[in-house]
Amino acid sequence: MIKILGRPNSVNVQKVMWCAAELGLDVERADIGGAFGGTDTDAFRKMNPNGTIPVLIDEDFTLWESNAIVRYLCAAYGAAPWVLPNTKTHGLADQWMDWYQTTLHPPMTTLFWQLIRTPSDQVEPAKITAAIDAGAKRWAILDQHLATSRFILGDHLSMADIPLGCAAYRWHSMNFTRPDLPNLRRWWEELADRPAYKANVMLPIT
């Protein structure tokens, strides 16, 4: 059985658990990280020297980095449309997954920490305003793309939707005023109807 080490409220763990559920995989998850601790032990650092979650254990194979785990699960256990048909389509999936990590993730992280994790008397409104503005500009890029595409790679959900789909829940659920991006909202609402997304992503943001 595949084992995932990581707490359920981590957006990176949510990527992996949602992907596994969409693939119909039987996965065992262990509470590690955050309030649960466990990432500083010698045993954990041997698996992941960064001390971060999630970590995948698949028999004698260990893998860290959430996007890498999503790619691995799709390649090892998926069927179409999770196994992409050619290198060009795979390149497009990588493009959007990496774009999330390098371009959209930073303002989303600022919003999360300022709105969720920072004590109210230490919140910096200027940081929130700047992160909303930066996030909106980046989400608008995806909104434009989704004007002509049901999902990120076309008519079917794929691994390209996983990282951005997890972030979209937080963008639409945290308490701030956001611009209406109709194509983004339509895509996110379709994700929100999926049982695997509801069970693994639409959790309390803590």
From TrEMBL:
Belongs to the GST superfamily. This is Glutathione S-transferase. Coiled coil: none annotated. Residues 1-81 form the GST N-terminal domain. GO terms for molecular function: transferase activity. The keyword Transferase applies. Gene3D superfamilies: 1.20.1050.10, Glutaredoxin. Keywords: Transferase. Residues 86-206 form the GST C-terminal domain. InterPro entries: Glutathione-S-Trfase_C-like (IPR010987), Glutathione-S-Trfase_C_sf (IPR036282), Glutathione_S-Trfase (IPR040079), Glutathione_S-Trfase_N (IPR004045), Thioredoxin-like_sf (IPR036249).
